[in-house]
Amino acid sequence: MLALFGRVLVETDIGHWYINSLVTSGGVTILVLAISAACGYAISQLEFTGRKLLWFTILASFMIPVQALIINHFFLMSQWHLINTWLGVILPQLIAPIAVIVYKQFFDTVPKEFREAAQIDGARHWEIFVRIYLPLNWGITSALAIIVFIGAWNAFLWPFLAVTKPELMNVTVGSVQIRDFGLGYLAAALLAGLPVAVVYLLFQRRVTEAVMLSASIKG
Hints:
By secondary structure, the protein is mainly alpha-helical. It contains 13 helices and no strands.
């Protein structure tokens, strides 16, 4: 079995696949958290035209499975010439309404006196968001980051459709392409899941908290 692992590491592009997975998963995680936190803060703390409509739209998005959007995503990425690019893999995975809801629910619990006091001191909205509200929820952010990263790392359907060049595949897609030697595909699958298993073992408590929080909100 060790020989199989050695052959997979030496005779395949798994090194490139790991890099691709790390870049795309990291990009998805950073962008999802940044966009969701900003959106959740705006809906929770600011008054603007269309605020309630935006909130109901986010809630209604749960009724549409991501798989139903695959064709639209493919045509859109094709028109933008983003097929076979990291950006083309990342962009369609930024739809994460649950993250917006989690942030919004948390920001609702923050006393509005914090924002009002900061405004009296002359702080602008982005300063209040970055310096006051974000530091209060690092626990939620870290838990969401782990969940989003694991989900992006394990993503298969969209990366499989968006990337055809072997050197640009992520590790989950690349591992199923191995057919040249014996049980090499099994060794590749184990190597593909190893980083996720390590992350889960190291941050098991945070992952459990995020799953329980998501379940309670959905319920």
